[in-house]
Amino acid sequence: MASHLTIAEVAERTGLSAHTLRYYERAGLIAPVARAPGGQRRYAASDMEWIGFLLRLRETQMPIGQMQAFARLRSEGNATIGARRSLLEQHLQQVLATIAAMQQAAQALQTKIGHYEGLEASLRPTQTTSSEESTSHAPRNPKSSLRPGPRQAARDRRPGR
Question: Is this prediction's pTM over 0.85?
Fold first, then answer.
């Protein structure tokens, strides 16, 4: 990696827009970035590592206020290590609770999908071989085979299906 990257290069590498990078700096998420003689921002490797961590926090749905609190604690140095760890532990508990809720939701979806697969299978016409067709007892009235039997009619009337 080049020793210092422009805002356009950082935007390309991180997927953040230049506008978002400038916002992160104004909001205190990113410490003021070094500037070239012409005033353009120049991001160092340490800036990139920190931005990568901020992106991880964002992926976990950490609210921006908590991200700002963490960034503020970080800027205060080693005296805040315990507070930073505590903040991350609390957030981790929220992330794990969200994961558990999503796993329950996914299980409910899988159950419902299985239910509908079963319904679809029961509604598919059965395929018979030609020898079965010749020995089957077909109804004398062809229209009667179009009406559902009592079991199918009852299934069709069940709510929520």
Answer: no
